[in-house]
Design goal:
Elements (H helix, E strand, L loop, with lengths): L21 H30 L4 E2 L5 E4 L2 E4 H4 L5 E6 L11 H7 L6 H5 L3 E7 L3 H11 L4 E4 L5 H4 L6 H4 L3 E3 L2 E3 L8 E7 L5 E8 L8 H6 L54
Parallel strand pairs: 4-5, 5-6
Antiparallel strand pairs: 1-10, 2-3, 4-9, 7-8, 9-10
Length: 274
């Protein structure tokens, strides 16, 4: 176990700060409270506008590989009318899942029971074949429903998979064309299924749009050092898989995104773990 009470091994964020009387502190806090309330109102309005966005009908019959065999997109709703899918970066040949996606996924299990009682199912999709998904999920101790889109266009159609040839130029990610360094990208998509069984795509978000899923960040935003990422070349360079934090934890502020290693042998759709 890491020494959580030890010296902060992250960044050298200077902590010199203005110290005032109780009266001055309260005056500043009340001014900030007004700004917080305004942000809350704006967030509520933005959420209302999001719910009013038009939908698009899902025309393709997507089929995934699940823990017990094939599953359609309709199956993923698990009897509910609303479905949230997290597009998890775990490529077909990757030895392990993306650290940043794993950081987000650490927040998923506890919320599933609450979502279910709001008519929402949460599922996770990756392009890795099912045995590779199951091995990594077992290692991480997660229980959420995770399926494979290996051999399906699903990840590509929803903007989180690119071919090596496409990566030679600009690709469309997060609703704009730009250079991107990986075949896999993170994202979240939302779907609705009506009483007739028709499925509609209602929303997708990517990049910083995923911040709302990270409860840890909301805690960090409350403390004096905040997320403590300003001095990092890659903001999430401090993140590890939760089973890899330890007393030897070190952080290189100059480190960039580190793609998970690939296995030497190309995966096969029918591969099985022992």
């Amino acid at each position: 176990m890491p020494n959580l009470r030890g010296e902060n091994p992250m960044t050298a964020t200077p902590m010199k700060h203005k110290v005032v009387s109780r009266e001055e502190w309260l005056k500043a806090r009340l001014a900030h409270l007004a700004a917080e309330k305004e942000l809350t109102r704006k967030r509520d309005e933005l959420s209302r506008q999001r719910r009013e966005l038009p939908w698009e009908k899902v025309e393709k019959n997507y089929v995934f590989e699940g823990p017990r065999g094939p599953e359609t997109l309709a199956d993923l709703f698990a009897g509910r009318s609303q479905l949230i899918i997290y597009h998890f970066m775990l490529g077909p040949n990757w030895e392990e899942g993306c650290k940043s996606c794993s950081f987000l996924a650490d927040h998923f299990d506890a919320t599933r029971i609450h979502l279910a009682h709001r008519d929402v199912t949460l599922a996770v999709v990756s392009r890795a074949p099912m045995p590779r998904i199951e091995a990594f999920q077992k290692r991480m101790g997660w229980r959420f429903h995770w399926v494979s889109a290996f051999g399906s266009d699903f990840q590509r159609d929803y903007g989180v998979h690119f071919t090596k040839e496409e990566l030679a130029g600009e690709v469309n990610y997060n609703y704009r064309n730009s250079r991107f360094g990986l075949e896999e990208a993170p994202g979240l998509s939302v779907f609705y299924k009506d009483a007739a069984g028709e499925i509609f795509h209602t929303y997708s978000t990517y990049a910083r749009g995923l911040d709302g899923l990270v409860g840890t960040y909301h805690f960090l935003d409350l403390v004096p050092k905040g997320r403590d990422e300003d001095g990092l070349a890659f903001t999430m360079a401090w993140v590890r898989h939760h089973d890899k934090y330890g007393d030897d934890y070190l952080l290189d502020p100059a480190a960039t995104y580190e793609k998970p290693r690939e296995t030497e042998k190309c995966c096969e759709h029918g591969e099985r773990t022992s």
